[in-house]
Amino acid sequence: MSTCTPARERRPRVPAQVYLLAAVIFCLGTSEFMIAGILEPLSADLAVSIPQAGLLITGFAVGMIVGAPAMTLLTLTLPRRATMIITIVGFAALHILAALSPDYGLLMATRVLSAFACGGFWAVAAVHTTRISPAAVQGRALANLVGGLTVANLVGVPMGTWIGTQFGWRATFWAVALVTALAAVLITVTIRPDATIRPDTDSHDTDAEPSGDAPHAAEAKPGLRTLLRAELAAFKGPRIWLALSTTALFQASVFASFSYFSPLLTRVAGLSPELVPAVLAAFGIGAFVGVVVGGRLADRNVFGNIIGSLAALAISLGALWLCAENGVLAIIMIVLIGASGFSIAGALNTRVFQIATDAPTLAASVNTSAFNVGNALGPALGGWVIAAGLGFRAPIIVAIGLALAALIIVAVAIRVETRVLPKDRSVLRPR
Question: Exposed, middle or buried, 93 (CB in 10 Å: 0-12/13-18/19+)?
């Protein structure tokens, strides 16, 4: 009897703090994705076209591209806890300003600045997750962190869509501001400010659970130049750039289609606008299943997870294009797109941390930027083909092409891995 209990106690688990960080990501993800659900009332109120309103998604993504690494550099020597609190408080304040915006220009400005805050939190939260999680469950932990996005799609975006259609799109921004402010309070209360383990130099003591207030710096507090030199070392060679390219192309594929699901459902499939929130919730259910399954697969085989997810995404998109005029089949395909798309998230993050093991902070922020290169590119390309008169199914073709391009990049990455580390086959798995 006595030999069974210690074995159970030593079994690695995802730390509880990861779930709190995922709750914050839920708030950020709801804000990032909710524009897709309120495109039509927002465009009507501000007297802009639907493609122009869709550029608010691109604007947020561009802010993330620049903001994630910029905020990382600005806060590199600050405690993680302080960085997270500052960024989410700023995020909430900017949503209040967005709710009060009298025109499209100011609203766009708040979206870009909100993305700066979002990018800063994402990078620190991802590093914190890897540092407090045992190596055996890092893929699962990162998938759980990204799970906040799936819950955002499952609950946040449909709820935001419903609020926007019932009370006006500005009410959606007020709701996000309120929930994000609550998340800031929870971070302040829950993560202690007395940690002694530093994220970029600790020994990965998987039995400890740092509180998160260690600076993004080495233990002896070296200068910023020394820190940057260590962080930039991760960007030498093709491996990191292939990983980032895969992230960007995959995300562009998802968002080229997702951003225009609302008009696709109402104007092609012929569904009532009142059903759109329910369909987006169904997409979120698929995404939640994808994250859960994909996180476990990433802990077994990173590249296998990535290839399978991209192939499934391309097939699901092709099926949606074929049956877009059938409302029931379109909904089923959208759920499958959510599952296949989000099943890759843990593996993409794990891959970056495999490459940038010793100095991951800047790499994590640039990976966040890569996700948002896709977030910017996808809606822009989708809006462009719609504006060109090709119809609301055309973004699906764009999405398929981007998914296939990502598969080509993965094939090159595997070839590079076998050439660079021919004797270390474990490169295809998390370390």
Answer: middle
- CB 291, CB 150: distance < 8 Å: yes
pTM for the model stands at 0.67
Residues 6+ apart with CB under 8 A from 267: 392
Contact status, residue 346 vs residue 140, Cβ threshold 8 Å: yes
Quick check: 86 pLDDT over 50? Answer: yes
DSSP assigned state of 32: H
| Token duo for residue 186 | 């929870």
| pLDDT tens-digit series, residues 376-392 | 788 889 989 998 989 99
End-to-end alpha-carbon separation of the chain, Å?
A: 32
CB 253 within 8 A of CB 402: yes
Structure tokens at 178: 């309120």
Single-letter code of the amino acid located at 178 = L
Encode pLDDT of 229-244 as tens digits. Answer: 666 766 777 888 999 9
Give yes or no for residue 219 having a pLDDT over 90: no
Taking the C-alpha atoms of residue 368 and residue 353, their distance in angstroms, rounded to an integer, is: 12
Element containing residue 124 per DSSP (H, E): helix 104-132
- For residues 310-335, b (16+ Cβ closer than 10 Å) or e, as one string? bebbbbbbbbbbebbeebeebbbbbb
Query: Which helix (H) or strand (E) segment is 22 a member of?
Result: helix 16-33
Quote the pLDDT of residue 427.
46
Separation CA 91–CA 118 (nearest Å)? 7
Q: Return the sign of the alpha-carbon dihedral for residues 188, 176, 279, 380.
A: negative
Q: How far is CA 338 from CA 131, 145, 233, in A?
A: 29, 17, 35
Measured between alpha carbons, how far is 241 from 244 in angstroms, rounded to an integer? 5
pLDDT tens readout for residues 126-140: 777 777 777 767 667
Q: Which residue has the higher pLDDT, 69 or 335?
A: 335
Q: Would you call 215 helix, strand, or coil by DSSP?
A: strand
H helices, E strands: number in the chain: 18, 0
Residue 269 backbone dihedrals phi, psi, to 5 degrees: -80, -20
The tally of CA atoms less than 13 A away on the side-chain side of residue 236 is: 7
Please work out, in degrees rounded to the nearest 5, the angle formed at the alpha carbon of residue 268 by the alpha carbons of 340 and 311: 20
Mean pLDDT of 173-198: 76
